[in-house]
Amino acid sequence: MKRRDFLKTSALAAGLALPTWARAADAAPLFAPNPASGWRQFEVTTHVEPVQADGLVRAWVPLPFTEESDWFRPMGNIWQGNASLMRVMRDPEYGAAMLYAEWAAGTAVPELEIVSRFATRDRAVDFSRPAARPLALSADEQALYTRATELLPTDGIVRETALQITAGARTDEDKARAIYDWVVDNTFRNPKTRGCGIGDIKSMLETGNLSGKCADLNALYVGLARAAGLPARDVYGVRVADSRFGYKSLGKSGNISKAQHCRAEVFLARFGWVPVDPADVRKVVLEEPPGNLALDDGKVAAARKQLFGAWEMNWLAYNVAHDLRLPGSDGAAVPFLMYPQGENPKGRFDSLDPDAFRYTLTARELAYA
Length: 369
Known about the structure:
Order of helices and strands: HEEEEEEEHHHEHEHEEEEHHEEEEHE
Helix content: 10-25%
Strand content: 25-35%
Largest sheet: 5 strands, antiparallel
Radius of gyration: 21 Å
CATH topology of the largest domain: C8orf32 fold
Distance between the termini: 36 Å
Structural class: alpha+beta
CATH architecture of the largest domain: Roll
């Protein structure tokens, strides 16, 4: 089936279910922020074509973060396709939103297209203005974001390393900064790592091979922070625009099928959730022209200073879920949901190979009326 025919024949079903953005899947209101306040609006289109099979074919596609904040507003999702079932599902533990689709056996060319809109603006913490009173997570949130996961243990070598790094640190901010500096100083980005990595931090520390990509290096930050008693979490997403601050390595526009990027947050009593991204510092070191920069290079130093406490929001946040079991699947849990996932009776597709799995993500910035 040609793509234009797919869109034409799917439009009626999509229109009946979701005729306007105001009736998006998650019932999010249409949000029209003021560009003067720094807000930008984006649209991301995900087109998935799972492999045809004799039996049932399933797909799970991550949807944008559903929480509104001072840096992110979901604007809703619409979809169309020839699947026999398409519906929004959420992970019960983390609230990660995804569109679940399934195609009956014999579907000639399984296809699905999702269009997501969101608004975002750059995020920065002013460390000169702490809260007058300590902030606190709920008991459930505290437990969730300090606990161990399969790939983020908080005992053994992870705890030993965390305690060594934070020895002498007096405050939670001191601990968070010490761990950030240690990750920046001791890790490096490995361009040969598949995808964004998997974040097996115990193996990284045991082998001494502290290399990888964002899902490895930022997971190391999160695991060490949790082992030191700090609530922390990975935030999984995808880049949607070029950097406006001159960093060629820290942005992607247009076809973003391979632009997934994991970031991290740490919760500090006087500041709440604080954005960090030591992995992007190491990305600047490796990839910013002319490449293989020294840590004391001006570009690296500037990124290092900025990325403890700030994110440039040319990026879409999906979720903070770890060890996620895909609803309806008998397969193994996925370490995180940052790529479209799919399976047929023969097993799980390789989500790190968008050509074999056949999915594309494209992004565009929306103009204000």
